[in-house]
Design goal:
Subcellular location: Cytoplasm
Protein name: Ribosome-recycling factor
Function: Responsible for the release of ribosomes from messenger RNA at the termination of protein biosynthesis. May increase the efficiency of translation by recycling ribosomes from one round of translation to another.
Organism: Marimonas arenosa
CATH topology of the largest domain: Topoisomerase I, Chain A, domain 4
Mean pLDDT: 89
CATH superfamily of the largest domain: Ribosome-recycling factor
Shape: elongated
Largest sheet: 4 strands, antiparallel
Strand order of the largest sheet: 3-4-6-5
GO molecular function, one term: ribosomal large subunit binding
Number of strands: 6
Oligomer: single chain
Helix content: 40-55%
Number of domains: 2
C-alpha cells in the first residue's frame, strides 16, 4: 500500500466535459434555423492580408431585422474576399453587396433543408458525446493505473464518480440536441 491516498481530479474531468459542451454550443450556433444570427458567421474565416481572419475581425456584423445579417466591411479591398468566404462556407446564403456593406438575406428553410440540418445537429451531438466518453475513458485509465494504491471499494467509488459525470454530460448533450432540433424544425 502506498502512503498517499489516491484522489482522482474530478474537477479536471468535469472541466474537460464542459469543454465538449462549449464546443457543441458553438457548432449549434453556426446552424441556420431560418432566423438571422450573428453567431452563424463565427466559423467563417476570410483570406485577409495573407492570413485567415475571422469574419468579425474584418467588419462589423449586425442583425438589422429577423431575416437579414449585414457586414460592414472596414477595408473596401476585402469585400470580395468576404463574399467568397460566405459563398464557400456551406451556409447556403448568397451575399448581396452595396459598397462596403455585404447583406445576407436569410431565406425561409424548406422541410428538406430542416431535416438535413437536424441530421447535422445530431452529428455534432455525437461528436460531443464521443468527446465526453473519451474524458470518461481517461478517468477510468487513471483509476486503473492506481488500483494497487486503493481498496476495491475506493475503486468502485471513483468509477461511479466518473460514470456519474459522464451520464450528466451525455444527458446535457442530448438535451441540447433536442432543443436545437426543435428550434430547427419550428416553422
Amino acid at each position: 500500500m502506498a502512503d498517499e491516498e489516491f484522489m482522482l481530479d474530478t474537477d479536471d474531468l468535469e472541466r474537460r466535459m464542459q469543454g465538449a459542451m462549449s464546443a457543441l454550443r458553438t457548432e449549434f450556433a453556426s446552424l441556420r434555423t431560418g432566423r438571422a444570427s450573428a453567431a452563424m458567421l463565427e466559423p467563417i474565416v476570410v483570406e485577409a492580408y495573407g492570413t485567415q481572419t475571422p469574419i468579425n475581425q474584418v467588419g462589423t456584423v449586425n442583425v438589422p431585422e429577423p431575416r437579414m445579417v449585414t457586414i460592414n466591411v472596414w477595408d473596401r479591398s476585402l469585400v470580395s474576399a468576404v463574399e467568397k468566404a460566405i459563398m464557400n462556407s456551406g451556409l447556403g446564403i448568397n451575399p448581396q453587396t452595396n459598397g462596403t456593406i455585404v447583406m445576407l438575406p436569410i431565406p425561409e428553410l424548406n422541410e428538406e433543408r430542416r431535416r438535413e440540418l437536424t441530421r447535422v445537429a445530431a452529428q455534432y451531438a455525437e461528436h460531443a458525446r464521443v468527446a465526453v466518453r473519451h474524458v470518461r475513458h481517461n478517468g477510468m485509465e487513471q483509476i486503473k493505473k492506481h488500483k494497487d494504491d486503493m481498496s476495491e471499494d475506493d475503486q468502485k467509488f471513483w468509477q461511479d464518480e466518473v460514470q456519474s459525470l459522464t451520464d450528466k454530460y451525455v444527458g446535457l448533450v442530448d438535451e441540447a440536441l433536442e432543443h436545437k432540433q426543435g428550434e430547427i424544425m419550428h416553422v
